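Appendix B. Chain record.
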Amino acid sequence: MTNLQSDIGYASAIELKESYARGDTTPVEVVKAVLERINAINPRINAFSLVMHEEALAAARQSEQRLRNREAGPLEGIPVTIKDAFDVAGQETSTGSYAIKGQVAATDNVVVERLRKAGAVIIGKTTMSEFAWSGMSRNPVTGITHNPWRHGLNAGASSAGAGAAAATGFGPLHLGSDGAGSIRMPSHFCGIFGLKPTYGRVPCVPVTNNDYGTHPGPMTRTVADAALMLETMAGPHFLDHTSCEARPDAYLAKLKGSMKGKRVAFSLDLGHARVDDEIADIVRNAARTFAGTLQADVEEVIPDWGVLGPELGRFFWSVYCGRHARLLADWEGRMSPDLVACIRAGANFSAADYINMRERKLTYVARISSFLENWDFLITPVASVAAFPVERVRPEDWPEHAWDWLAWSEFLYPFNMSSHPAASVPCGMTAAGLPVGLQIVSRRFNDLGVLQAAAAFQEALPMQRQRPPIGPAA
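Structure tokens predicted for this chain:
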């Protein structure tokens, strides 16, 4: 592996745009270097379900022509990866399951289409947990995606490959989606930045049938790159009747914002969650950074709605998985056993059960919204633990369970239910050298505020400069 591969692979989208403008490098040189880095290192990480070598180089050559003609888009020549849940025209969308493996997409997903039109170069599709169901970075089709910081550890899911690719220097921009933490969780485990925008800010096509819980969003190393990527992806679309009518804000241009005097609620456990001591210490220090360096008004709180989350989270997650029960007769032997357990747990609830629980959920969401109206931001841990062995559902020192990984991620699903914007930004490292993320949440439609808070924090604590100690595959 050459220094060129490493330097280009870790260059931000902003840096690449500036380099193209100066004529220091070209999209073909960048894409070649990133692909060479993937060839050298990905066999050890397994972040990709598909690498699109020829297609990427062809797109890079087209980008060079547009740059010469001064027709460049905002992401011209910038490498991007796409989570396998999103259709890419002419490529397979397997979502990590043999039950649908082999299905080739006829057209690009709406978000993929927008990235292409902005000039981004798609270099491949990244791995995910089967049907995006779990917090473990493995599936029956592509196997294990390893944490770049420690081989054999969980990279988080379901956008596992995107998180691992960003941390490993496989280009600057990565498209993920978040149905119960699937952008924020791998960002926490892999030490990158990830934003789950306000629901509807980025169109979700087709509209998912998990009660509007899935949020497409950017996964990057720098907050500035995420702001640039969000500008491209956001905005209404006629195929998503739930998408926001508002056009994207100038997220990048407005990224710098003072945190002085901002009212920040800090909760270490939402009043109920178990949190490992080392994670708690690191997140407390992050709260002190907000209070000290950033001069925010930070107050530790115990939200009264927190304790209502676990029953709701487990009910709805198992019910959403339960819709796959029709696949068990033919595919159970080739599905993830923990997914099968979750399907069985949620398969026999009635429509009345669902409606009654949904009524409770809507009350819960209203309480979260009322709480957040009184604060500029809420900060919490992203997860209760650092990365642990990927074959497990829970860390070894936690009680075993057949499928319930939500136990160590109680901070994530509440804001999928409530639609609020939430981000994970690196805030420290454990003694074992594993990343830890801080979650920043705000009111609906305050995506810019979350980006500003994360950017201010990243400037105060620039963890994005750290790189995993990983070399080429043996």
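Further analysis of this model is presented in Appendix C.
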